[in-house]
Design the sequence.
C-alpha cells in the first residue's frame, strides 16, 4: 500500500483547536498525483511506486515517451512500498491518504543561507569580548590540535555554505486534510521555502491521542 505523496509548500498560518488553543500550521498542496510506474522486485530489484506531480511547461522526447498517455508532469518521485499488488499505473493519489491526527514525515530542501560563519552556522559562542580581544568576537578559535596529529581533522566545524540541504522532519501531526482543495495542514514547520517541493510519508508510529479539530 502506498504510504506517501508529493506536495508543495504554500506557507504558514495558525488555526484554533476546539478548546481555543492556537496552533502554528504549514499549508501544503498535497497532490493529486498519478502513478507513473510500478517497480517490482522481480524486474527492478526492489518494490516502489513512481508518482507524477504538477504540470510541466515542456518535456523532452524521452520524458514524453515515459509519460505517454498519463499526462505531462514536472516532478517524478519514487516511494518504496511493501506490496505493489494493489497499485497500478494510472491510479490517482490525493490528500485522502492522510487523516487528522496521523503522524507524518516531511522531506524537503532547506532554505539556502549562503556563506555563513561558525556563530551562525554551528552556534559557536565566539571569542571573549574583553582582555585585549578586539577583533575575535565571531571567530572560531584554534582549529588545529597541536603537535600531534599536527593537522586539521576532516569534518572540523568551520565557516562555509549553509542550508540548501535535504532535510526530513519527523512525527509532524496532520491537523486537517481538505480533499476539495488538495490542502494538508500540518502542525509545525516543514523544510524549504514557499513553493518548495515536499515528499510526505506516513510515520511508522500510530495515531496520537490529542484531539484534532475537523
Sequence:
Amino acid at each position: 500500500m502506498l504510504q506517501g505523496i508529493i506536495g508543495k509548500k504554500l506557507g504558514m498560518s495558525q488555526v484554533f483547536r476546539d478548546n481555543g488553543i492556537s496552533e502554528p500550521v504549514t499549508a501544503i498542496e498535497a497532490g493529486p498525483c498519478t502513478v507513473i510506474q510500478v517497480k517490482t522486485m522481480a524486474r527492478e530489484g526492489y518494490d516502489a511506486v513512481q508518482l507524477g506531480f504538477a504540470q510541466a511547461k515542456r518535456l523532452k522526447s524521452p520524458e514524453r515517451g515515459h509519460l505517454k498517455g498519463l499526462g505531462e508532469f514536472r516532478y517524478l518521485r519514487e516511494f518504496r512500498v511493501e506490496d505493489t499488488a494493489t497499485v497500478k499505473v494510472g491510479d490517482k493519489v490525493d490528500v485522502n491518504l492522510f487523516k487528522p491526527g496521523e503522524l507524518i514525515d516531511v522531506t524537503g530542501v532547506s532554505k539556502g543561507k549562503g556563506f555563513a560563519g561558525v556563530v551562525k552556522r554551528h552556534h559557536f559562542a565566539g571569542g571573549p569580548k574583553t582582555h585585549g580581544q578586539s577583533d575575535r568576537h565571531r571567530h572560531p578559535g584554534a582549529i588545529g590540535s597541536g603537535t600531534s596529529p599536527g593537522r586539521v581533522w576532516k569534518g572540523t566545524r568551520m565557516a562555509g555554505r549553509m542550508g540548501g540541504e535535504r532535510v526530513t522532519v519527523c512525527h509532524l501531526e496532520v491537523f486537517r486534510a481538505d480533499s476539495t482543495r488538495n490542502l494538508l495542514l500540518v502542525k509545525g514547520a516543514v523544510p524549504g521555502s514557499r513553493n518548495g517541493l515536499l515528499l510526505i510519508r506516513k510515520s511508522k508510529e500510530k495515531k496520537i491521542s490529542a484531539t484534532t479539530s475537523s
Observations:
- The mean pLDDT is 88.
- The first strand starts at residue 4 and ends at 16.
